Fold:
Amino acid sequence: MTKVAAAYFSGSGTTSTTAASVIEGVVAAGAEILDARIIGEDIIEDQRQSDQLATRLDERDAIIFGTPTFIGSVSGQLKTFFDAMAPRWFTQKWRNKVAVGFTASSLAAGDKAGAFTAISAFVMQMDMIWVGTGAGFQENMNTNGFYLGLAQLLQPRSS
Amino acid sequence: MTKVAAAYFSGSGTTSTTAASVIEGVVAAGAEILDARIIGEDIIEDQRQSDQLATRLDERDAIIFGTPTFIGSVSGQLKTFFDAMAPRWFTQKWRNKVAVGFTASSLAAGDKAGAFTAISAFVMQMDMIWVGTGAGFQENMNTNGFYLGLAQLLQPRSS
Amino acid sequence: MTKVAAAYFSGSGTTSTTAASVIEGVVAAGAEILDARIIGEDIIEDQRQSDQLATRLDERDAIIFGTPTFIGSVSGQLKTFFDAMAPRWFTQKWRNKVAVGFTASSLAAGDKAGAFTAISAFVMQMDMIWVGTGAGFQENMNTNGFYLGLAQLLQPRSS
Amino acid sequence: MTKVAAAYFSGSGTTSTTAASVIEGVVAAGAEILDARIIGEDIIEDQRQSDQLATRLDERDAIIFGTPTFIGSVSGQLKTFFDAMAPRWFTQKWRNKVAVGFTASSLAAGDKAGAFTAISAFVMQMDMIWVGTGAGFQENMNTNGFYLGLAQLLQPRSS
Structure:
């Protein structure tokens, strides 16, 4: 059975709602899932918290990274977690794990691309294998047109 | 009087509609505008066409670059025009000109970010000064949330 | 036997030298390789040339995309080939093929990142699976520190 | 007299060495400089620290952002500072300030591009005006070929 983890930070809780849907989808697809939510305060104040979380990710076949988009990139909390993975970067410990990403923000568009840029840069440095969303025409999915990962609009916008 | 040029490629004509609005806005702001539409076939088949167009841009204070977003970046036609600017890159001839960008595509979101990435890379290599759109909250503008340039949705999407 | 193709544009011929090394490596790894060099003039003047090349790529398991870096992104020729793949984007015909990239330029650094950005955007839109280079510490490889793909320095630079 | 600030995070101290050179250059050019080093622990543990720092930046004409490149993007500390600027994003308080960036990392190349991507995304969201480095041919500068900002190699690399 494929072992997947969802490693994500959620601020107000909206990203965690998206994470719940993602987790449900992974389970429905027959894989085992680890819910590895990143608590910002823990990660930042105590390097050991990052290490403990990372140890649980070491044995996974695939990791789903999630974050709100803050001002054109990933949240400071997820970035701080990424930075704490430097020892695993040096040994390329996560080589060949599959990686996907998701993000959420309040506008439909482009600022979310910056979050995917940062996640995919990390993924490439770790020598993981990046899988995007595809166009999803047949399934009437991905109507906003993001391809690097799953992009969630936080709330409908009247314009 | 500030001298501006709009240098853009338009495939089906939708980008040229956006260009017309942009040109109208520049004129309303009291600047002089040069409509420097790039004809793809000319540019690509004959390097002298690019040179002639570029000569007209040399004397401008600011250049607006426009393109449809094709498959996650600028059109091949605009990129071919950029490539033909290599001699001006070498002399940094356009240093300190102001640059802005616009693009159009059929989906609301993220694929257009890649077009801005390519335009801004060119602009930085030319040592021009990049100006984005800003958030536009006060004016109820930029509701899709692009900041590097003006992003136009080609047609409403039923979903 | 895994079937791979190298689809690349080379201007002065330096990129084709890199391509030759890449092809040699693929063969040494036991895979079958198709040398699908893109001739810029053919691609651009005649859409059918792109179609014929693409048909040969349809049956491949993996595609290696290569280009010189021109002014911060892929060459206009490779971008024009990408644009011509729009029908295959619409049907997601290349879904789940593996993709890697390589590029070459005369400076050690950052401008090559823009070429990988454009290639990976295309790859994600096609729903292919992107594989980077990894850090390569053990093998004393990738000393310039590119992770999205193989980055080749065209000539040593005295500074 | 033009008022400039250098707002940067430095981990081991190497980035602060680069910052010292940058500050020296600004002073030599006849501008007034504010050395606004970001202390990671302060920023992250106490939002008021970010607010106090930002208040000092409010009255500046130009801001220089600096960071080490950590695993393909800005440091978590600088990103956390950016995130804390959300109120100023909402009011576009820094509109029309000039912005430049610098970064340092141990490899010559591409991973530093990701740091500039994140800084420039922030700058565009704040509606600031982005100025890069230019090619610097005449001055035998920028030999590594970064254009979005100043890229510093931490230590020579034997290869």
